[in-house]
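RECORD TYPE: inverse folding
INPUT: structure tokens
STRUCTURE:
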């Protein structure tokens, strides 16, 4: 007896499922009778969403085209980054050259200063020597 009731219930569910897509008006009436209005509409909408998701899969050529577009964007980004690095490297080279020039100028100025200090010391020695010879020292 339970088997017959379950079999009858399964047959009813299968017929209802078929009627949702083949006879929407009948399935809407059944929805109202069982106290679930809009159930068949929701099932049809879900099927439509699933069908569109399955059929919106890109073809191989669309996939390749998208992959090539991504590759081109990546290559452009890499080239832009390379150009930026080259520009920064050029600027750094100029800074290094300016630093070397400034260092050379400082070194030359230091040599001139050291040479002038030596000359002052020699002049001071000469003045002291002349002062001692003439007796007019400090």
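DESIGNED SEQUENCE:
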């Amino acid at each position: 007896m339970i088997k017959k009731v379950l079999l009858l219930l399964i047959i009813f569910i299968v017929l209802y499922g078929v009627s949702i897509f083949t006879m929407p008006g009948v399935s809407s009436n059944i929805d109202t009778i069982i106290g679930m209005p809009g159930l068949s509409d929701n099932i049809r909408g879900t099927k439509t969403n699933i069908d569109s998701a399955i059929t919106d899969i890109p073809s191989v050529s669309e996939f390749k085209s998208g992959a090539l577009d991504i590759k081109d964007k990546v290559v452009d980004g890499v080239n832009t980054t390379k150009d930026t690095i080259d520009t920064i490297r050029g600027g750094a080279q100029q800074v290094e050259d300016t630093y070397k020039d400034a260092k050379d100028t400082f070194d030359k100025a230091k040599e001139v200063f050291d040479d002038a200090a030596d000359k002052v010391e020699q002049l001071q020695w000469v003045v002291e020597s002349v002062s001692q010879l003439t007796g007019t020292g400090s």
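NOTES: The chain has four helices and no strands.
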